[in-house]
Every structure is written in C-alpha cells, then in structure tokens.
Amino acid sequence: MIRLFTVITFLAFGMAPAMAHIGHGATDSFTSGFGHPLAGIDHVMAMVLVGMWAAIKGGRALWAGPVVFVGVMLFGSVLGMQGIPLPFVDPAIFASVITLGLLVALAVDLPLGLTAAMVAVFALFHGYAHGTEVSETARGIAYMAGFALATAALHVLGIGFAVGMTRLGLRSVVRFAGAVCVFVGAGMFAGLM
User: Which of 93, 6, 10, 104 is nearest to 57 (CA)?
Assistant: First the structure.
C-alpha cells in the first residue's frame, strides 16, 4: 500500500493539471488528440476513476458509465468549439476527480440512472475544456476522435485495474487508489500541486 501511494503521489507531482486546457499544444491531429488526455493528471485520474467506479458497480454500469462519459464529453467539446459559455469549468473538473475518488474509496453504489447522470455532468465539463481548443475543421474532428479514444482507453484501464485487484482479493487497493485521487484532486484544487 505504501509503495502504491508513493508511486501515485510521484506521478501526481510529475504531471501538470489541465487548468482549463487553453494552449496545451497542437489540436490538429488524431495523435495530438490522443495524447492530450494523457498530459494532465486531472484527466487521467478522472477517466481511470470512471472505469474503476464502473467496475465496482458492475453489471450494466460496467459499460454504461464509460459510454455515457465519452458521448457527453464529445457533446461538451462541440459546445466548447462553438464558444458557448459554460461557467466553472476548472472547479467542475477538480470536483470530478474528488467526487469520483470518494465514490471509489467508499465503494458507493448509486442507482444506474443517478450514476449515468453524475458521469454525464462531469463529462460535459471535461469535453468542454477539450473543445475550447479545437478548430472547426476536419483536423479538429480527428483531434476529437483521438481524445475520445484515449478517454475510452483510460476507462478500460480503470476497469481492468479494479477487476484485477478484486479477483486477487485486493479490493481494498482499489478503494485506497480512490482515496489517493481524492487527496491529489483536493491538492490541485487548493493550488498545492
């Protein structure tokens, strides 16, 4: 457990929070889109946590949470591309990390509809942040496809981690990872990381 905490903390300090994502590199290719969600710890944690929470819930949530997230994230990115104002983007992104971390740490089992709604709200803000950087061109569409695929891959990573740890009888490791994400998300929100 101490080693896992050390590794996660090291990674958290080694990655930069997205901070509304303005000016984070090229947004004109599939490759840059795929790499973008991997560049900020807030994105990585939120996406992996969605997968972990889906695995904890099991059943239809296993696919519904990630599918809802990616779909609404793409909708949010279109809003961002269009310049439609959406307030509180950064606080909502940090809140997604903290909230999803708590849900995983406490193994909260909400009804599927409420789970999907919560994931959708968080996805809207994550997608909007991506969309504010994207041009309305074919290259912008390729960029969106890249970040959608990377997001789905991070969800699968979270699902695989949670399922693997549970099968090994180490579900407490999954919950501990959620708690670490709460700590890191709160630190980012407070400006400490």
Answer: 104
pLDDT in tens, 84-113: 999 999 999 999 999 999 999 999 999 999
pTM attached to this predicted model: 0.83
The secondary element (H helix, E strand) that includes residue 149 is: helix 138-167
Domain residues for the domain of 170 are 24-189
- Asked if 13 contacts 193 with a C-beta cutoff of 8 angstroms, the reply is yes
DSSP code at position 87 = S
| pLDDT tens figures, 135-173 | 666 677 888 999 999 999 999 999 999 999 999 999 999
The residue type at 96: S
Answer whether residue 14 is part of any domain.
no
57 within domain boundaries: yes
Judge whether 11 lies within some domain: no
Asked, for residue 7, whether it belongs to a domain, the answer is: no
Counting the structural domains of the chain, the total is: 1
